[in-house]
């Protein structure tokens, strides 16, 4: 994967692509809102998830599936760790 990235992103410009330049101002104006939207939804996706959840729940009901409740497994203490904050028990 790193080899692919190196070849595509940092290698020499391929023959025939020398005339392709960086984004111009007009293209940046189009791309900037998309980048901002991606960043906002990446940090706070709740508005989109609130819109999607009713349809997902309806689909899950239709196919007879349910979303299992989250469960927390009992943690296993690490080797040598004390069982309580007071110290190890004999």
UniProtKB/TrEMBL annotation:
Entry keyword set: Oxidoreductase, Ubiquinone
Recorded GO MF terms: oxidoreductase activity
Composition bias, Low complexity: 68-81
Record keyword Oxidoreductase present: yes
EC number from the UniProt entry: 1.6.99.5
Region of interest: Disordered: 66-90
EC main group: oxidoreductase
Name of the protein: NADH:ubiquinone oxidoreductase subunit M
UniProt source species: Mycobacterium tuberculosis
Lineage, top ranks: Bacteria, Bacillati, Actinomycetota, Actinomycetes, Mycobacteriales
């Amino acid at each position: 994967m790193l080899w692919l990235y190196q070849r595509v992103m940092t290698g020499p410009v391929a023959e025939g692509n020398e005339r392709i330049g960086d984004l111009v101002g007009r293209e940046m104006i189009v791309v900037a809102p998309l980048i901002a939207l991606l960043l906002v939804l990446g940090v706070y996706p709740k508005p989109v998830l609130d819109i999607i959840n009713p349809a997902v729940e309806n689909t899950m009901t239709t196919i007879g599936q349910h979303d299992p409740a989250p469960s927390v497994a009992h943690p296993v203490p690490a080797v040598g760790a004390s069982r309580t904050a007071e110290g190890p028990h004999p």
